[in-house]
C-alpha cells in the first residue's frame, strides 16, 4: 500500500512538473513570436496582443506546477552549518518539522488562492487586453498549489517513516539529486 501511494504522489508531482515545463515552452515561443513581430512591424506584422497577460498567467501556473516536484525531490535550499554535525536521527526530526511547516505554508497558500479564485469569479474581473476571466489563472494555479499540499503532507509522512527507520526513503524516480 505504501509503495503504491509513493508511486502515485511521485507520478502526480512529475506530471505537474512536465505540464509546467510545457507551459513555459509555449510561453517562450509566444514571447519570441511577439518580439519578432515587433521587429518585423514594417512587413505588416506586429506584437501578439496581450502577450504579457498570457506570460503572467502562464508563469504563475508554472511556478505552482514546479513546487511539488521540487519539494518531493528535496531540492529546496538548506543550510547545514549546524545539522552537518548532528546525527541522522536529529536530521530526520528536523526534516519532519520542516515538512510539517511546509505543509502548513502550502495549505495557507492554497487556501488564499481559493479565496482569490472565489473573488475573481464573483466580481467577473477580466484581463485588460484579451478580456479573459482572471479566475482562469487562479484556478490553474490552485491546481498546482493543491498538488503541492498533497506532496507536502506526503513528505511529512515520509520524514516520520525515515525517523522511525533511521534511513532515507525516496519514492521510485524521486530520489534526492
3D architecture notes:
This protein is mostly helical and 177 residues long. The protein has one domain (2-165). 72% of the residues lie in helices and 0% in strands. It has helices spanning 2-39, 51-72, 88-123, 135-165. Helix 1 (2-39) runs antiparallel to helix 2 and helix 2 packs parallel to helix 4 (135-165). The longest helix has 38 residues, at 2-39. The protein is elongated, with a radius of gyration of 20 Å. It starts with a helix and ends in a 12-residue tail after the last helix.
Quick summary:
The protein is 72% helix and 0% strand. The chain is built from 4 helices and no strands.
Radius of gyration: 20 Å
How would the global form be characterised?
A: elongated
State the share of residues found in helices, binned by percent: over 70%
Q: In DSSP terms, counting alpha (H) and pi (I) runs of 4 or more, how many helices?
A: 4
E-strand count: 0
By secondary-structure content and strand pairing, the structural class works out as mainly alpha
| Estimated share of beta-strand residues | under 5%
- N- to C-terminal distance: 25 Å
Query: What order do the helices and strands follow?
Result: HHHH
Largest sheet: none
Tell me the count of domains. 1
Write down the overall mean pLDDT: 91
Unreliable spans are: none
Amino acid at each position: 500500500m505504501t509503495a503504491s501511494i509513493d508511486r502515485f504522489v511521485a507520478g502526480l508531482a512529475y506530471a505537474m512538473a512536465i505540464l509546467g515545463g510545457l507551459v513555459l515552452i509555449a510561453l517562450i515561443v509566444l514571447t519570441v513570436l511577439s518580439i519578432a513581430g515587433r521587429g518585423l512591424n514594417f512587413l505588416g506584422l506586429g506584437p501578439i496582443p496581450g502577450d504579457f497577460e498570457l506570460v503572467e498567467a502562464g508563469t504563475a501556473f508554472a511556478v505552482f506546477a514546479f513546487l511539488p516536484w521540487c519539494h518531493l525531490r528535496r531540492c529546496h535550499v538548506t543550510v547545514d552549518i549546524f545539522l552537518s554535525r548532528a546525527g541522522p536521527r536529529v536530521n530526520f526530526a528536523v526534516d519532519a518539522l520542516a515538512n510539517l511547516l511546509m505543509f502548513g505554508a502550502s495549505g495557507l497558500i492554497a487556501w488564499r488562492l481559493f479565496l482569490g479564485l472565489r473573488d475573481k469569479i464573483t466580481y467577473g474581473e477580466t484581463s485588460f487586453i484579451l478580456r479573459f476571466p482572471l479566475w482562469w489563472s487562479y484556478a490553474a494555479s490552485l491546481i498546482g498549489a493543491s498538488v503541492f499540499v498533497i506532496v507536502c503532507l506526503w513528505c511529512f509522512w515520509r520524514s516520520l517513516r525515515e525517523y522511525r527507520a533511521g534511513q532515507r526513503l525516496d519514492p521510485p524516480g524521486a530520489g534526492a539529486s
